[in-house]
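pinging the channel bc i need a second pair of eyes. not urgent but kinda urgent?? the chain im working w is below, pasted from the shared doc
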Amino acid sequence: MIPLISESITAYCESMGMAEPPLLAELREVTNASVPHPQMLSGPLVGRTLAWLIRMHRPKRILEIGTYTGYSALWMAGSMPSDAELHTVDRDENVVRIARSFAERHDAYRRIYFHIDDAVPFVKKANEHWDFVFLDADKSRYPEYLSLLTPRVQSGAILVADNCLWSGRVVQAEATDDDTQGIRAFNQALNKSSQWENVLWPIRDGLHVAIRQ
């Protein structure tokens, strides 16, 4: 991911927010040191934004599509109500193993559920209605996830999708790869839908935030 704003501005924004919990700082260091493609980690600014949204919305049923090493899940878990559950799904057992090892040290561990699965069959099998969804998985399938999730979230539910600027490729006409086209289609579908009210924030690599009508 190529940052759309300077590293110094990003660092300044991070310094003005809530402190990164020591457990999450350690997880970020482990991810950067030992996991392929550490740039996939959502980072402190996105984590704080998710925590802030959850603290305001107070959802009971939280779904994350794309666990990676669990950094964003632990940010969300730290702000969710005491009677809430967080379910996070990923196909990669290796990264989920790291996520689980850090989650075991978190106060909300018993309310965090890890699922090794493809998100589409998992969401269909779960047959749940979610209050809050964080989407950070394979970008070419973002439109598919939106179609899947729309009837499975409560009215008033929040959807947050990461990487919706895709290092600026969404506005580059020459960018025609599957991931870029998937994100463009997702952004357009969300923006034109009468079932969602949306705003695309230029936070890190683009957070597309929507409320289910």
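so The first helix runs from residue 7 to 15. and Strands lie at 61-65, 85-90, 112-116, 130-135, 153-161, 196-201, 207-212. — does that match what u expected or am i reading it wrong
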